[in-house]
Amino acid sequence: MGKGGEMRENKHEHQEEEGVMATDFFWSYTDEPHASRRKQILSQYPQIKELFGPDPLAFLKVTVVVLLQLWTATLLHDAGWLKILAIAYCFGSFLNHNLFLAIHELSHNLAFSRPVCNRWLGIFANLPIGVPMSVTFQKYHLEHHRFQGVDGIDMDIPSNVEGHLVTNVVAKSIWVIFQLFFYALRPLFLKPKPPGYWEFINVFVQIALDAAMVYLWGWRSFAYLILSTFVGGGMHPMAGHFISEHYVFKPEQETYSYYGPLNFLTWHVGYHNEHHDFPRIPGSKLYKVKEIAPEYYEGLDCYKSWSQVIYMYIMDRTVGPYSRMKRKVSTATKKSE
Fold first, then answer.
1. What is the protein's membrane topology class (predicted)?
2. Residue 21: inside a domain, yes or no?
């Protein structure tokens, strides 16, 4: 990191010593770390390329979860609201969050070799989530990989408004509960993209499913799906990955992996350093990257509990929405857009 980066890092370290929350992002004056690490690993372990390609079981896994969640919703058509909420948090939230991360997997075309097939499966996986997001998510997520941390391009990074307002335990707790809304609305306000043909298909198919659910089984079944999405993306163990992936708890590291049991329910998205290093490898094989090239990952900070990450984020007075690494738009970045 250059001199300017060191000055910014020292500023944050001084704030951490005083227990004061940062008032600006961590600014990096180097390229994101994954491209260079990918090049180094492939030069040393070229066999990793054999892991590239679709997951042959992705279609089956998505289909089972979609049908199970829709079937559960129909069973709750006349259930009490407390029962619906309890089942949504303890069961449906895990299924819908699993589907959200299936959509993440499909955004990298990791179910089929043909992108159009992945897109259709993403629209199918979207159905129990209740709100159309699959196609739009892919547009912004691929930019997150290509331009990680780049100011004005990577919409995974919180806005200045979030940084200024979310400054204490109460505000951070509310932010965590509603973090799905921030992730969904942030790009629409900061970097809106005109909808395309596939967005309209996504919306049409989703509204058709939602309308059919309400018509055939009533509002409670539909509410179960929406509640499963909402609570599963908020104060929920699986939602800890939103924070654990890139929120900076250690200034010299901007991506963190999680090696815990919830990986089996989340398409192994916890292997996040490995995923950013090799986005063409499906989640089910990412653990092999760490096995083949352990020296590149064992020295990095990692997590074993997403719930602990949420607790750390809320309770640590020095951590907040500004705890993210950003970099300026370079000439090279502009040329690659």
1. Multi-pass membrane protein
2. no
